[in-house]
Design a protein that fits this description.
The chain is mostly helical. It is built from 15 helices and no strands.
């Protein structure tokens, strides 16, 4: 076996696939009620919002940025959507209001990072509290629970007789778009360049500020989409929606092989991590592990993903030519050569 085949066989993406398939096989054989149509539908529906938000989050991390405010943005958009419906606006207008709110929130984060030169970690940590605070100012501790039947039906029904919930449909439309943009387009090559070597990207003429701003706007916009899905699924709009969801989203991205150092990662690995996290949470729930235990395991997975990313970075520096031949897809792979 040559070095290319060895690296591919040992790739993090393939390891995730095998681990996920092993977990699913165990769950089908050993966990009661796991393989039922109802449980599969509930498990997929429960990850719908995270699946959406992890798409722009992965791109941001590859570009050496991060958005810690995604859950708060979702909550604020949900509040705006609920208040709009409550005021008598139609569902279509309310959805537009939620999407516009998300885009504005993303633009705020992006402007602070690109035009004022502030670290995205600090900016989005501040906006995490600010956006949720605005939601509380608008709606307080109240909630909006009355929605048209057609909207709540979207949150509870499946595609025909399949176990696929309607709430995952927005992800199924957006995921191929993000995959193509990141891994097969000139925009994706610029994103990898920004994260891999910002100085070289700037010297090559990559419009870094514009791309980073667009990534934050897209993140906010997708949070708006996720807020509509979340509100439909729970038939509830309130300011404390989705608390802690940012931890799950970041865990999925890093566990999927997106490097915390930027410049490397592939959405195919993120998709496997998404399935793994969804299956693991579902198995733990069916095994009567509470939310606290699930949170502990999610936190441990995040730490493990960071350790793997850091170790891969060191291994690449020491044994790069042998362990990671060109075009390999190792633990934090996905970067590619870029032209402006």
């Amino acid at each position: 076996m040559n070095a290319n085949l060895l690296a591919r066989a040992a790739s993090w993406e393939n390891f995730l696939a095998m681990l996920t398939l092993a977990l699913l096989a165990y769950a089908v054989l050993a966990v009661p009620n796991f393989a039922t149509s109802f449980n599969i539908s509930q498990a997929i529906a429960g990850v719908s919002e995270r699946a959406l938000i992890v798409l722009p989050m992965s791109l941001l991390i590859i570009a050496r940025e991060i958005d810690l405010s995604v859950a708060s943005t979702l909550a604020l958009c949900s509040v705006i959507f609920g208040v709009a419906v409550q005021s008598g606006a139609g569902i279509e207008i309310s959805i537009v209001a939620a999407l516009l709110t998300g885009a504005i929130a993303g633009a705020f984060n992006g402007a602070m990072v690109t035009y004022f030169g502030l670290p995205s970690l600090v900016v989005t940590l501040g906006s995490l509290a600010m956006f949720r605070g605005i939601g509380y100012i608008i709606l307080g501790s109240d909630s909006v629970n009355v929605f048209p039947d057609a909207f709540t039906d979207f949150g509870i029904y499946n595609l025909g007789d399949s176990p696929i919930p309607l709430t995952i449909v927005p992800f199924l439309f957006l995921a191929p778009v993000f995959l193509i943009v990141l891994q097969f387009s000139f925009v994706g090559r610029r994103i990898y360049a920004i994260g891999g070597n910002p100085d070289a990207a700037l010297y090559a003429g990559v419009k870094m500020a514009r791309i980073r701003l667009c990534l934050f706007v897209v993140s906010g916009l997708v949070c708006g989409v996720a807020s509509v899905v979340f509100t439909a699924r729970l038939a509830n709009a309130r300011a404390d929606n989705a608390i802690g969801m940012e931890l799950d989203v970041i865990t999925i991205a890093l566990l999927g092989g997106v490097s915390v150092f930027g410049g490397r990662g592939k959405l195919t690995g993120v998709f496997w991590a998404l399935i793994l996290i969804a299956a693991l949470r579902n198995v733990l729930g069916l095994s009567h592990f509470g939310g606290d235990a699930q949170g502990i395991i999610t936190g441990l997975l995040l730490i493990a993903a960071l350790l793997v990313s850091s170790t891969a970075q060191r291994l690449q520096g020491a044994f790069g030519p042998w362990l990671y031949p060109s075009h390999s897809d190792g633990p934090s792979s996905g970067g590619s050569s870029v032209s402006p």
